[in-house]
Amino acid sequence: MSGGRGWGVGVPVQAHPALAAAASAALDAYTVATTEHDRAALAAIVADGADGTPTMRIDVLVEDAILGALARHPVNVLTEETGWVDHGSAVTLVMDPVDGSANAAAGVPLSAFSAAVAVDGVFTEALTVWLDTGRSWWAGPGVPSSLRTSGRRDLAGAAVSLLRPHPANPPAAAAWWEVARRAARVRILSTSCLEGALVAQGATDAFADAATDTHRLVDLAASVVLAESAGGAVRDVFGRAVELDTDLTKRWSGIVAATPDLADELAEVLSTAYRAAS
């Protein structure tokens, strides 16, 4: 990592070998996929993922390359499309090969590879790589993190990234607008892992799913390590623990915030507004 900025470029030399192999394969496969295929081909739905949602071709191209690279690293893998791959290891790699698939397929340069390492069920290391630029955020065991959040404690005046509002879900839409009303700035980037990394870097104060239960573990695992190593916190709007679970149909409404105080306030504001509108 580069001093002062909190982020680096490419795959850090300190990274766990399996994590490094996965990230390197993702960067290479993403470059090849976006060079050799047009937008329609990349966005084509080719399967259903392990989480039950449609899988785009770009997801398959990148994930297949990663799984091939991981053949030399017999760790367990929990990944968006294939799901749970059990090698009987104490080490598990929880990853989203292309977070922000719709952005990536459309040519919008906002997508990321993101993964966390869990040892005996506890997240210990994480790496998120912005696929279009190579910018990366890493935190690991025994190494002081250069990441620092903004330190903001209050929602009033905060810069917040949010998943898009869902008009068909009035309680969640009400929760979204309540946060938007209190915050100073709202962004919608459509890439949860990258938005979580930006919180850890201090570029934005918080990121949240406004009570829609959209997040899977692969969307939040890296932020657990990155944000907490930087002084931040990860919460669920409805109080559910964000921890290793191999069931990719399980959902969260995740919050990544600069401080525990801000995370708790966001959870309170969102859950209260959601329940009031239900």
From TrEMBL:
Q: Which GO terms describe its molecular function?
A: inositol monophosphate 1-phosphatase activity; metal ion binding
Whether Metal-binding counts among this entry's keywords is yes
Cofactor section: Mg(2+)
What keywords appear on the UniProt entry? Magnesium, Metal-binding
Q: Which residues bind Mg(2+)?
A: 80, 96, 99, 219
Broadest EC class?
A: hydrolase
Annotated protein name in UniProt: inositol-phosphate phosphatase
Question: What organism does the UniProt record list as the source?
Answer: Nonomuraea jiangxiensis
